[in-house]
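WARN no homologs supplied; continuing
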Amino acid sequence: VQQDDKRAFSIYRRVAERGLPVAQAELGYALLCGKGTKKDLSKGLYWINKVIDNSSIDGYSSYIIGLCYENGIGKEKNMGKAMEYYQYSMSRNVDESYIHVAELYAEGTKIKQDLIKAIQIIDEAINRIGSVFDWACKGNILLMQNNHNQVNEIWRKIIEQYPFFAIESNDH
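OK structure emitted
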């Protein structure tokens, strides 16, 4: 995995230097976290701020910047600011943002727990995107509500749409 992180970092750097905001955001985040490279806060902030200053910020970059504000990585922790970036990202149909925000509401550790809002958000993701990850997230939230019947129904839907999830593994 470490080699893959280094390779990804190298690719992000080359593409970021050509001006693609999503690559700039990924490069900045990698530098801030030390993923695939040595941590470098000043270079990481340079790339993140370059994306923030770009008037045509894309949805995925907005998600990454939200992570920076949420976790205090290169930016002061600010959940309000993080949620603004996540909302923008969701308006651009970035599945990771939908899932992350739904999980934030479901867990209730960084924002006030609201399982109903979590379900509403993940239902919107299912309607707009409908990935297996959206369905799995909904299943996890329903488990928090002890709604086992609906969880079983969701797993049936997942297996119908993605039969490879039903294959047993001997890797335990």
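Residues 2-17 form the longest helix (16 residues).
OK
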